[in-house]
Amino acid sequence: MSSKPIPMAVIGAGYWGPNLVRNAVSCPELDLRYLVDLDLGRAEKISAPYAGVTAVQDALTVFEDPQIEAVAIATPAATHLPLALAALEAGKHVLVEKPLAATWDEGRQLVDAAHAAGRVLMCDHTFCYTPAVQEIRRLVHEGVLGDIQFVDSVRINLGLVQRDVDVLWDLAPHDLSILDYILPEGCSPTAVAAHGADPIGAGHACVAYLTLQLPGGAIAHAHVNWLSPTKVRTTMIGGSKRTLLWDDLNPLQRISIYDRGVDLTDAAAVDAEDRRQVSISYRSGDMVAPALKEREALGIVMSEFADCIRTGRAPLTDGRAGLRVLDILEAASRSLEYAGAVVPLRGRR
Amino acid sequence: MSSKPIPMAVIGAGYWGPNLVRNAVSCPELDLRYLVDLDLGRAEKISAPYAGVTAVQDALTVFEDPQIEAVAIATPAATHLPLALAALEAGKHVLVEKPLAATWDEGRQLVDAAHAAGRVLMCDHTFCYTPAVQEIRRLVHEGVLGDIQFVDSVRINLGLVQRDVDVLWDLAPHDLSILDYILPEGCSPTAVAAHGADPIGAGHACVAYLTLQLPGGAIAHAHVNWLSPTKVRTTMIGGSKRTLLWDDLNPLQRISIYDRGVDLTDAAAVDAEDRRQVSISYRSGDMVAPALKEREALGIVMSEFADCIRTGRAPLTDGRAGLRVLDILEAASRSLEYAGAVVPLRGRR
Amino acid sequence: MSSKPIPMAVIGAGYWGPNLVRNAVSCPELDLRYLVDLDLGRAEKISAPYAGVTAVQDALTVFEDPQIEAVAIATPAATHLPLALAALEAGKHVLVEKPLAATWDEGRQLVDAAHAAGRVLMCDHTFCYTPAVQEIRRLVHEGVLGDIQFVDSVRINLGLVQRDVDVLWDLAPHDLSILDYILPEGCSPTAVAAHGADPIGAGHACVAYLTLQLPGGAIAHAHVNWLSPTKVRTTMIGGSKRTLLWDDLNPLQRISIYDRGVDLTDAAAVDAEDRRQVSISYRSGDMVAPALKEREALGIVMSEFADCIRTGRAPLTDGRAGLRVLDILEAASRSLEYAGAVVPLRGRR
Amino acid sequence: MSSKPIPMAVIGAGYWGPNLVRNAVSCPELDLRYLVDLDLGRAEKISAPYAGVTAVQDALTVFEDPQIEAVAIATPAATHLPLALAALEAGKHVLVEKPLAATWDEGRQLVDAAHAAGRVLMCDHTFCYTPAVQEIRRLVHEGVLGDIQFVDSVRINLGLVQRDVDVLWDLAPHDLSILDYILPEGCSPTAVAAHGADPIGAGHACVAYLTLQLPGGAIAHAHVNWLSPTKVRTTMIGGSKRTLLWDDLNPLQRISIYDRGVDLTDAAAVDAEDRRQVSISYRSGDMVAPALKEREALGIVMSEFADCIRTGRAPLTDGRAGLRVLDILEAASRSLEYAGAVVPLRGRR
What is the ipTM of this complex? Predict the structure, then answer.
């Protein structure tokens, strides 16, 4: 491609920002010009080793620079709305850290604003761009797993106890964005229930369990936990044909596809009083661990962002995807308040 | 001990019965005389290699033999009440397979009948007699873990889909009996919520999640699943001082005790408008895996049963423990019916 | 099969004998009548639970009982020759614990005696009868792995330090008998070197490394160790087409077959001074873990023994296989004495 | 420290060079000014994102720049001697990639030249600077493990088959430098034997086994392999008091210290004919996994290099350490040529 790299800025030099900076610098389609942070010293320290990146304190500098075409926002969720809105209004394309915004309503405003401005709004659902999740999506969409019967996610480790958000809003966006990404369209969750606990007195849930109803009697569940001394990141996806286990902490065998499961065959009812007779059989076939490339997901996020700006197509994880995740998070929070009550979802629109 | 071994019978030669037979034969304090099964051929085949064990078809033979002092019952749960009741009325001591009975009311009748007859009623909560669970109980009761903050159990594998019971009643009794055994008295669960799915059309839940409220804001959770292609049996017990991970499928390191966690220190509120200030700190100390003996739990069950008969003391897992497990199972079933509603427990009595 | 079970005896009630007893009792083709041990009390204790098994102190009782057709010998290696010879001379079929005998010469005598007597001589190379090793042999013999390039075995754990044999003679027979079983005929080892250490002062090697030269530039290596606090039992078999990893302590995935490796293509030498040009390419394909049945190997050993007696065919692990293992063990011992010198093998005859 | 960062250059932009560049840039005590590579385009590409780093083609530019005080050399081993020698003669401090040089004699020249020039000569034995190896050294030197009885290293994976060096020279320097670093002084290896194979026809060994004799009957062994489809990096260090297992691919539990082992007690010989009576006992105590910091080793290498330049002290892995590794590598190569013959070492000087 002979086109010039896209001039861009990163806003936020906190936990995630430096990763965005590093990957923007490495991405040949992008040309990082600014790193913005209220803490100018921090922005300067992070940007210092890189040639051509200026640290600034005020995002306005970026919005007002007509050369800048795109911004990536990695600030606290509460600030996503004003920053992203200002960026869109200034005609910039926007990549936003997860979650898309602090509430579904705010997220909605961003989606509408991007639509009105004709600009790309992409949500940085990083895990969706890992080779593992790409492969899982392919396997699900091509029917290799059959109908999805259950999804079980565990994402636990000794995490940083956040002051502004609970463990649901901190960790579950990963699982929910992955779920949104891999499930076929007709398979989106319809309702959610959440149970949580704050046994250390942090002021909000540090351990939480989320149950999602899926169409057709299927179920999805996520366990997120800041208090676990060991790190676990697994997702099991049970299908009618195959069951897949993704263990993100096992680089030598991240994905295992098992040809093991339970099959039920309908047999004719013997007489009217009989309940449906089912004949159960078990498959215990081989397991296959497909070869995966090792690529840094955030690098692919950057390429996707650049490519969508170039071509005008919607990102794989666009604002709408971010909105669907917010829908579940909000419902889950309400469920937590009401002791685990089942809360229906808005769903896809 | 010079006393003679206790003459006993095993009723039920199905899945679990042969294990009871093998361990009763190996236990020097017991003298296995009968194996009872409606399928006499099966009883004969199982008992054939053993000297001195007679296969019979009718449990009445056992109840009417005045030499028999004890019976172990390993039949379907629906038959526990009549069989155990008849045994107690015939003056036999009784060891019953889990769950104690098909309902809490039936279990209550057994507890009362054993009390009235002055006979031992023991529930075969086998896992409680593993060296691992014995060690966990010790660590919890001696305060090594501190206050219990969360308990997370996973018991999943490609299990036999049962026709008469769902996955909750099939697998959760293990986790619930272990929980009952290790938690200190004041720490018993107060309410339960359950979510399940039957994605294969088996007629009842094949995947289920159980959330238990514990006093003081703590939480316990169990994932039971018949559809998982891999086998997982882990329990994590988070405490204010230490967190313990029990991985029953790792014989080289079943128990790991982590000195890692989150500590909160209350700091004085600066002014009236401030929310409570908490100062968070993280421990990341060593991990210790205590040496455990390798002993077959069922052998210890047999010794415990014999010892309680000899001494008249209550078994570590007596009828009351079995009743508490039934309490939770019944409440969980009701919760499943009502889409995850929180159902309070009867609790200890 | 309507034929009567074969009356047999087990000689030796030490470490392995009880396993032979249990499996002989469970095998419908065999009829265990005697358990022999110089320590009669021990023989009585082991045989007590089983109907129809008599404990005796003198093997002569067995040899002189004309009804007994077969014996299984599980005594120290030094006694294999006199016991097995007497048994063969008395017309019994013989199953001998590994190693076949204390020396190659003694083993040779047994093979000759069995041949002369027209009786079955089988070596209890138990691991060869595991579903895993059966599958490995099949994969090697059917060419799925391609040409064997390297074999690497590790068999280490906190083992019982033996007084009469070193770690080589205690543990390596397992690896060597497996190697003998899986390698195609033309692929037998041609020479061996061994290095060992006795860092605790036990009087002989407690840690040893064995290197075997295989035809065609291939290599096999075994690490045996009594001093390791953890247990490892792995064998990797590198082939020109696939590489297989057998992890015997991972029941959920004992065998993994990797389509990963290095391929070399010869390219024409450009000119006379050039060294041979090789073009290297790497395969990084999928991994497949084949489904394996879970069966106790010793039960299959018993069936094989019975079947060979019935049909007169040679056992899969016959005396000659035992002899080939002794050949390597003796050469390895000589190598140990001479500080790792390479010692050629007698090889197949 | 208020002193100015040390102006330096990196020579070599191949496989390892970019890591040196990244860590030099991040190290506040160093000021990276040049990246040198014969392939100027490559040097330019690697240095482009970093401010203040100039790509040059000729190392002479660096040697002649009087401001440059230090160079890090990451070129093929055959070029270490001329480059490092020129650097030292130009008065620069030198950090050299492993192995120190292509031969022991060349390494010796470098050590002598550095001594004569009064400059720092450091060998980049990166693994020695990992928190894990630092902890192991501490545990060994403080006597926690007791006397070292055996060391067993495995370093295998599908590695790049090198054209200029065999697997021994490619991978074993890691294990040998670690061994050199952790063993107490009196415990250095005295002789080596090596066995290897080239089953793919690469022109030199692709699989190799190295056995080292240690004083007092102890043994060390390393398995290095380019053909393994899975990656293993473990080192077990058996001591008279504790045994340690280092699994570098398990970030959650890199080091496990087992209080398990075999103890021998000498007992008085009962009479003259008796062999020495030894009484064997087994310890099976707890396992402890110490908490380790996660730090990038190469960052610590850079700090160590800078600190040695500042203070004039010898690096933890100085030229002499690199020389001791070369001593073993050369002896191992000779052993390979002579089919595994034991070759004595020059040892410490």
Answer: 0.91
